[in-house]
Design a protein that fits this description.
It is built from 9 helices and 8 strands. Strands 1, 2, 3, 4, 5, 6, 7 and 8 form an 8-stranded mixed β-sheet that branches. The N and C termini lie far apart (38 Å). It is globular, with a radius of gyration of 17 Å. Helix 1 (19-26) crosses helix 2 (34-42). It is α/β, with parallel strands linked by helices and 268 residues long. It is 35% helix and 15% strand. Residues 1-20 are annotated as: Disordered.
C-alpha cells in the first residue's frame, strides 16, 4: 500500500495542455483532455514512436537494475500511470522494493492513489512536486527511501522540458550528489541532432501550447552523466539500450538513453 496520506491535489487545469497528459495521449491513454489531444495531433507521427520507445527503455532498464539487486527507485516525472508501472516491473523481481514517484501534474496524483499500489512486501509513495525543487523532492523521498543504500534515480523523458535557463544540469547534479555509491541514474532525452527538422517541429508545436522544450545534442545529454560510470552499451538511442534481455527490434529513434552508476568515490 502507499505510505502516508497524499495531499489534496489542486484543481486540474483543463484549459492548457500539460506534458504528462500529452504523453498519455501519445501512448494511447484516455486520461487526457481535448487541449492535450489537440497538441498531440499536430505532432509528427514519430512522436508516438518516441513515447513508446521511452516507455520500453524504462521497462528494460528497471528490470535490469532489479536483476542487479537494486531495490530502491526515485522516479521523477512519473506521468500518468500506464501498466506495467515501474514498481510492478521491479517488484516482480524484488517484491520488497520501495519506489517513490514524483510528478507536478495534479491529474497524476489522482491516478497514483488508485494505481501505484505496492506489493505487500514493498512500498510505494507518490510525491507531488516539481523537479525544479530537487531539495524538496529529496526531503520527502527520504521518508521512504534509505539513502545510505543504492537508489536508482529515473529521469525518463523529463529533462527536455527544462530549457537551459532552468539549470537542468544543476538540478541533476543536486539529485545525483545525494545518491550513495552503487546508485544509478536512468535517463532518456529527446535529441536535437538526430532528426533536426522533426525536433524543430515538435518544439514549435509545444511552444504554441505554452510548453517550452530544450532538446539537446548527444554531447549535451552526455553532460548529465558527468562523474558517473556509463554502463554498456553507453549513451545510445532508446531502442539500442538493453542489458540482460533479447535485443529490441532495430528502429529509428530521436531519443537518447543511458544508465550510469555512481562510482565508489562518489561523483566528481
Amino acid at each position: 500500500m502507499p505510505t502516508g496520506t497524499p495531499p489534496t491535489p489542486p484543481r486540474t487545469d483543463t484549459s492548457r495542455a500539460q506534458p504528462a497528459r500529452v504523453y498519455d495521449w501519445l501512448l494511447g491513454g484516455k486520461d487526457n483532455y481535448p487541449v492535450d489531444e489537440a497538441v498531440g495531433r499536430k505532432l509528427p507521427p514519430q512522436a508516438k514512436d518516441a513515447a513508446r520507445q521511452n516507455r520500453a527503455f524504462m521497462h528494460r532498464a528497471a528490470a535490469w537494475l532489479a536483476d542487479q539487486g537494486v531495490d530502491q527507485f526515485l522516479d521523477i516525472g512519473t506521468g500518468i500511470p500506464t501498466e506495467p508501472n515501474l514498481h510492478q516491473i521491479v517488484q516482480r523481481v524484488v517484491p520488497a522494493a520501495r519506489i517513490v514517484y514524483v510528478d507536478n501534474d495534479p491529474i497524476v496524483l489522482r491516478h497514483a492513489e488508485a494505481l501505484l499500489v505496492s506489493s505487500p512486501e514493498g512500498a510505494t509513495e507518490y510525491v507531488q512536486a516539481d523537479v525544479r525543487d530537487p531539495g524538496g523532492i529529496l526531503r520527502q523521498a527520504r521518508g521512504v527511501l534509505d539513502f545510505s543504500r543504492p537508489v536508482a534515480l529515473s529521469l525518463i523523458a523529463l529533462l527536455h522540458f527544462l530549457p537551459d535557463d532552468q539549470d537542468p544540469r544543476g538540478i541533476v547534479r543536486e539529485l545525483v550528489d545525494a545518491l550513495p555509491p552503487g546508485s544509478h541514474l536512468v535517463l532518456s532525452h529527446a535529441a536535437s541532432d538526430l532528426h533536426s527538422d522533426l525536433a524543430r517541429q515538435v518544439t514549435e508545436e509545444y511552444a504554441r501550447a505554452g510548453i517550452r522544450l530544450g532538446f539537446r545534442t548527444r554531447d549535451e545529454v552526455a553532460l548529465f552523466f558527468d562523474g558517473l560510470d556509463l554502463v554498456d552499451p553507453g549513451l545510445v538511442t532508446a531502442p539500442e539500450w538493453f542489458r540482460g534481455a533479447p535485443a529490441p527490434a532495430a528502429e529509428d529513434s530521436g531519443i537518447y538513453a543511458g544508465v550510469a552508476r555512481v562510482p565508489s568515490g562518489g561523483t566528481a
